[in-house]
Amino acid sequence: MLISLNWLKEFISIDESPDELSGRLTMAGLEVESVRDLAEGFDRLVVGHILRKDPHPDSDHLTLCRVDVGKDEVQIICGAANHRQGDKVVVALPGARLPNGMEIVPAGIRGVESFGMICSEKEMGLSDTSEGVMILPGDAVPGTPAAEILGRNDTVFEIDLTPNRPDCLSHFGVAREIAAWTGNALKEPAAVVEEKGPEISTLIDVNVREPDLCPRYACRVIENVTIAPSPPWMQERLRAVGLRPINNVVDVTNYLLMELGHPLHAFDFDLLKGNRIEVRRAGEGEKIRTLDEVERTLDEGMLLICDGKKPVAVAGVMGGGNSEVGNGTRRVLLEAACFQPASIRRTAKRLGLHSESSHRFERGTDIEGLATALDRAASLIAALAGGRVAKGRIDIYPAPFREGVIPLRAAKVRDLLGISLPAGEIRLILERLQLTVEEGDRETLHVAIPPFRVDLEREIDLIEEIARIYGYNRIPSTRTRATLEPGGTTRNRQLSMRIRRALAAEGFFETIHYSFHNPDDLDRLGLAPDDPLRRFIEIRNPLSRDQSVMRTTLLPALLHNLRRNLKRSRSGLRLFEVGRTFEKSADAPALEKERLAGVAAGAEVLPGWDRQEREVDFFDLKSVLERLFRGLGISSTEWTALETVPFLHPGKSALIRNGETSLGYLGELHPEAMKRFELPQRVLCFDIDLEALFRAASGKIIYRPAIRFPAVERDIALVLPDTVPAGSIDKAIRESAPGLIRDVRLFDLYRGKPIPEGRKSLAFSIRFQAEDRTLTDSEVNDVRDGIVKKLENEFDATLRD
Description:
Layout: E1 2-4, H1 5-8, H2 18-27, E2 31-37, E3 45-55, E4 63-68, E5 73-78, E6 88-92, E7 107-109, E8 112-114, E9 117-118, E10 135-136, H3 146-149, E11 155-160, H4 171-182, E12 195-199, E13 205-208, E14 216-223, H5 232-240, H6 248-260, E15 264-268, E16 276-281, E17 287-289, E18 295-297, E19 303-306, E20 311-314, E21 318-319, E22 332-338, H7 341-351, H8 356-363, H9 370-385, E23 388-391, E24 394-396, E25 404-409, H10 410-417, H11 423-432, E26 436-439, E27 444-449, H12 459-470, H13 491-505, E28 509-510, E29 516-517, H14 520-524, E30 549-550, H15 555-567, E31 573-583, E32 591-601, E33 603-605, E34 614-615, H16 618-631, E35 638-641, E36 648-658, E37 661-669, H17 671-676, E38 683-689, H18 690-696, E39 712-721, H19 726-736, E40 741-750, E41 759-768, H20 777-795, E42 798-799
Parallel strand pairs: 12-23, 13-16, 28-31
Antiparallel strand pairs: 1-11, 2-11, 3-4, 3-6, 4-5, 6-9, 6-10, 7-8, 14-22, 14-23, 14-24, 15-22, 16-19, 17-18, 19-20, 20-21, 25-27, 26-27, 29-30, 31-32, 32-38, 33-34, 35-36, 36-37, 37-38, 39-41, 39-42, 40-41
Helix pairs in contact: 4-11, 5-6, 6-9, 7-8, 19-20
């Protein structure tokens, strides 16, 4: 932001030099990036009075001018066509070096000597374009330095403000900061309006349909204005801070923007249909052509300013070309409003449109100072454009601002700053910042926060203000003495890191996504309206619908990520995330759960000369999770068919249990869910409750000596009902002789003739081994026969011939 020193001096007396002031501003948190003297490049530029204008003897487009430059009269050849005898102009005398780098020397032009140059605005760096030389007011005195006439005897500071200090996005705001550390009196800007027009209520009706997004809307009407250039002093002020003068009405709104920091907008009143202003949300796909002559398509939810028929401005961002103030404007509607910062930020971001107004509205404006800015602008327009201000102003303000109060403890100030400041000095600093202070109990002050300080929310914020104004350089440096304790990690943190390393070793890539997502993703998962995963927490002011609710599951973000990578021809992709989910809870603001989720798709085995390509399937991920569980010291898990998760294939998904504890699930994504997420191929996914996993994990791998006695293997093939899961058979076999059975492995599944319909054949290999002896065939056969008998009784199984 650019700040003019001369402009600042209208509000406060400043004794420091520009360099000293720059240092003080930076130390107070308003970092000055550069200091520029506007008079630089204006040496030997003076006011000239054209006494004579004659044609050049050897040119049809050059003129020979005799110019009074104060002490002398000089001859200057000029190529412009807009000057006349008697005009006052800017003359660059020999030895001048213009801001654009041009050096002026006496020169002969077609046989005639020229001793200087009559300058245009472009040549002096005042404008990007010019149609001739610059004509000065008739009362300019020849010989006067041009810098003085053009308002260039000024210093401009470029300040890099942090987003939390919108109160300093104006000259008055910076002056208020200077007053706080100097104690000099702050002069409030005048805002006296002479109301000579009709009652405003007879001219315009205003309806704010979205008071949450527009908590205050005010306007005035000025009639009988004459559009013309603004006076030179205003134009120079605007140029000094990087703004281009347009006309007297628009320049006043920009002037007040830079002076008081509150954006204003001027409409051509006669271009507004229906004598009506309505503040409403845009409809999806609604269009408006903005002042930059770009037609913009709006999203549902963007805030608009409309007349009786159409949008006339994107609220807080930019006006519409269909209501622009131009040369034919005779009546002006002047708007001053306050908009919700998040709404303006979202709109500006979506439209890719950043303006001086949106820059301020995004950070928060002074809802109480709005009226002062409006009245001062109306007064200036009446003075500069010759208009009449209508009586009264429309001011829709349904919920007036109420000051928040923050308790401030003197002891806390002392503890954090390391110095003991008297209560009187603390109070004086706060009051100089225009904060209202009242005495409390036990060395406590109660500080009321004005609306322009949106950054002050807590006691620590007030303590920071005290340090800023008191001066960081006045706080003595002390050596910190402390005992450093070595850090450590919790058991759960250690287990979490082991999980990450284990999955990375299995070829998974870890991802980190936002903790919020689009509620439409829950529809894509096919969740029922009463599904627990729909108990999401809504974000009050989301940046977009894609980030409007806190996530209740990690899977949607992983699936979107997977889709993007698969579309980029990635093959054999595995992704996982460790993170928190959030659900509504009656007992707490949010129920947070630590989850592990993963997805996989594509080739599990790539094609080669000795093998064919194979796509990843359920059993590939099952083996990954089993290895993970074993690495965490979870020796036994039970996998049972799962048909209750709507986004998983009912025949290719399983619930994972450890004893009576559910650890999570694994399955193939349902074909309908794949379509809704636009996934081109089969996807496997898993979701694990990490808190349950941590409880089940011993975290230790137990060493047992190798058994010295030989193992014996027996195979059994069983015919049993098709509905019996292989896992149930596996479990029953292991429980039959836990001291002797070391391993059970399913190695064959068969359906078809001669197996009856509705039944299947499962073949298991069972490994027997004793720790203290060599098993005999008789012992092994007895155990095998017992297993077969148990399976026959419990599962209607028969031994296959």
